[in-house]
């Protein structure tokens, strides 16, 4: 019997308009009404997730920034795994040595851009082309202007002061339209900086966390606290940053049809894609 459901957001729970479909909402509500715990497991920062999810009337656990933070439904911080400042500076120096990369740093005090406002905005438009395929430039431009993530983004003006502050650094995320350069960057980071977890949510980014900050590790901490066994957990995802959940909870690991090949190979089940209510279909199977 399933006692906990954990789902990724982008490419999994969210549709092509970055919303949660009525079908997915209905399935989640049915599950929670039966006493099943619900977890949002995302690479996003808490500030980007909380209000959006709760606007649908949901009160999940929040596993954010790929597992760097875990929050209870009442937003209490239950667990964290941050990157120390020495390694953070080294990560930044390596990424900065690669030209034309956009970089954001997620912390316990919000998210920061390491680039100029103009370069950051251009990078956001590039990302919109990836996550909103088929949408024309003008619509992406208007959507970007209203994007809460961009509105809340802070800009680092003094890096020395930033590194010397007591901010807790949870994740680096860098973007490029050249997947080959991202692969080279990932290889260099893995070789030169110890104890990192390097993953991706789209083919145009890589995400860098502390080695302990993976979705699988943090979800395992939560299930142990709740007394829930591995085979009582349903996990859903589409990207390589979901792979650790599939490895930690393989029995009911369910990949989206639109998921990356590596994740689908690790899955016990494949559900419909995120444009056709794959989350609802998977939940329906376990509730039947």
TrEMBL record:
Give the UniProt entry's GO cellular component terms: cytosol
Where would one find the signal peptide in this protein?
A: none
A Pfam family this chain is assigned to: Hydrolase_3
Which GO terms fall under molecular function for this chain's record?
magnesium ion binding; phosphatase activity
Q: Which SUPFAM superfamilies is this protein grouped with?
A: HAD-like
CDD domains associated with the record: HAD_Pase
Which PANTHER family does the entry mention?
Answer: 5-AMINO-6-(5-PHOSPHO-D-RIBITYLAMINO)URACIL PHOSPHATASE YCSE, PHOSPHOSERINE PHOSPHATASE
- NCBIfam families with a match to the protein in the record: Cof-subfamily, HAD-SF-IIB
Task: Quote the protein name from its UniProt record.
Answer: HAD family phosphatase
Name the source organism.
Selenomonas ruminis
């Amino acid at each position: 019997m399933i006692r906990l459901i954990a789902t990724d957001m982008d490419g999994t729970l969210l549709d092509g308009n970055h919303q949660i479909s009525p079908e997915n909402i209905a399935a989640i509500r049915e599950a929670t009404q039966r006493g099943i715990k619900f977890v949002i497991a995302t690479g996003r920062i808490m500030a980007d997730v909380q209000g959006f999810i709760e606007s649908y009337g949901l009160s999940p656990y929040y596993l954010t920034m790929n597992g760097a933070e875990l929050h209870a439904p009442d937003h209490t911080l239950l667990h964290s795994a941050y990157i120390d400042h020495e390694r953070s500076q080294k990560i930044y120096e390596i990424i900065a040595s690669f030209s034309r990369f956009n970089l954001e740093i997620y912390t316990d005090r919000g998210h920061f851009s390491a680039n100029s406002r103009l370069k950051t905005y251009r990078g956001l438009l590039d990302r919109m082309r990836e996550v909103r395929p088929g949408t024309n430039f003008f619509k992406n431009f208007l959507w970007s202007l209203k994007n809460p993530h961009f509105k809340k983004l802070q800009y680092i003006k003094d890096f020395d002061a930033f590194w010397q502050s007591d901010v807790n650094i949870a994740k680096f995320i860098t973007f490029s339209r050249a997947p080959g350069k991202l692969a080279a960057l990932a290889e260099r980071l893995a070789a030169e900086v110890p104890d990192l977890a390097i993953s991706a949510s789209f083919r145009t980014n890589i995400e860098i966390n502390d080695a302990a900050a993976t979705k699988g590790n943090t979800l395992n901490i939560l299930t142990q606290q709740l007394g829930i066994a591995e085979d009582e957990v349903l996990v859903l995802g589409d990207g390589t940053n979901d792979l650790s959940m599939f490895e930690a909870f393989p029995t009911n690991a369910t990949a989206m049809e639109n998921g990356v090949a590596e994740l689908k190979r690790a899955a016990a089940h494949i559900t419909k894609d995120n444009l056709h209510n794959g989350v609802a279909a998977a939940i329906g199977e376990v509730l039947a």
